[in-house]
TrEMBL record:
Assigned EC number: 4.2.1.20
Tagged with keyword Isomerase: no
Gene: trpA
InterPro entries membership: Aldolase_TIM, RibuloseP-bd_barrel, Trp_synthase_suA
Pathway entry: Amino-acid biosynthesis; L-tryptophan biosynthesis; L-tryptophan from chorismate: step 5/5
Active-site residues (renumbered): 51 (proton acceptor), 62 (proton acceptor)
Record field: catalytic activity: (1S,2R)-1-C-(indol-3-yl)glycerol 3-phosphate + L-serine = D-glyceraldehyde 3-phosphate + L-tryptophan + H2O
SUPFAM superfamilies: Ribulose-phoshate binding barrel
Protein name (database record): Tryptophan synthase alpha chain
Function: The alpha subunit is responsible for the aldol cleavage of indoleglycerol phosphate to indole and glyceraldehyde 3-phosphate.
Family the UniProt entry places it in: Belongs to the TrpA family.
Length: 272
């Protein structure tokens, strides 16, 4: 694991004038073995960064799709130890792909902040975003992140004041995670004009790369986000929905994998 993997991917994408596509999944959904195969499909289809949205009983920032996936994982009794082992398995198979984890604060507090970051680093993870961590409470987390060479990622929302964006920029290292809409994660039909304005505004405030998420589900969303100045996008709910729908229709795994690979490829191409 290297803290420079994010930087390498960002630099490569800029040189190629290609937007970054970060693909998300829920570790352990629909089960540990299948989840690894999904990660494999996603990466081999061209995703630049893999987002791993770890399960929690009260994921306040997540919409219905991810909440249902979290509950599915928790009902199976999948432990954090097993999830860390999954991270390690993905890292071993794909040493050059940045792994980015989203984890709620309670799950970091439980083993102890430093211990959590130590386990994360040993599992080969490169970056961590804690949705319910405020900047004012971030000092011990940033200290642990620095010690274990984990990139701490922060969220910037449309409601974030300019002066706070400046402070978040100062605390961040590799990129900012833009919440493109006010609300929770989930698929949306339209890319709103105010979203483009929001991206342009943040671009003027910070030199850090911007990755836009929450509601990015179609190739046209990718094109609009990149045109507005985002360096990349992230899509997770649409991937989970695609997996769930095709599992429910009893399609063979190979067919589902092909549909997923085509979706990743289309989203990646849209950022060119």
């Amino acid at each position: 694991m290297s803290i420079n993997l994010f930087t390498q991917v960002l630099q490569k994408s800029r040189e190629a004038r290609q937007g970054i596509f970060m693909a998300g999944l829920v570790p352990g959904f629909p089960d540990l073995e299948t989840c690894f195969e999904i990660a494999k499909t996603i990466i081999e289809a061209g995703a630049d960064i893999l987002e791993l949205s770890a399960s929690f009983s009260d994921p306040v920032a997540d919409g219905p799709t991810l909440q249902q996936a979290h509950q599915h994982v928790l009902k199976q009794g999948i432990t954090k130890k097993q999830v860390f082992q999954l991270y390690k398995k993905i890292r071993s198979a794909f040493p050059d792909i940045p792994l980015f984890v989203i984890e709620y604060a309670n799950c970091v507090y439980r083993p102890g902040i430093n211990e959590y970051y130590r386990q994360l680093a040993e599992s080969g993870v490169d970056g961590l975003l804690i949705p319910d961590l405020s900047l004012e409470e971030s000092a011990p987390f940033l200290s642990a992140a620095n010690e274990h060479k984990i990139s701490q990622i922060f969220i910037v929302a449309p409601t974030t004041p300019n002066e706070r964006i400046i402070k978040i920029n100062q605390a961040s290292s590799v990129f900012l995670y833009l919440v493109t809409v006010t609300g929770v994660t989930g698929q949306r039909e339209q890319f709103l004009q105010e979203t483009a304005g929001f991206i342009k505004k943040v671009k003027q405030i910070t030199p850090l790369p911007l990755i836009a998420g929450f509601g990015i589900s179609k190739p046209e969303h990718v094109k609009q986000a990149i045109s507005a100045g985002a360096d990349g996008v992230v899509s997770c709910s649409s991937i989970i929905n695609l997996i769930r729908q095709n599992m429910a229709s009893s399609l063979p795994r190979e067919a589902t994998a092909k549909l997923l690979a085509n979706y990743i490829n289309d989203m990646k191409k849209a950022g060119a």
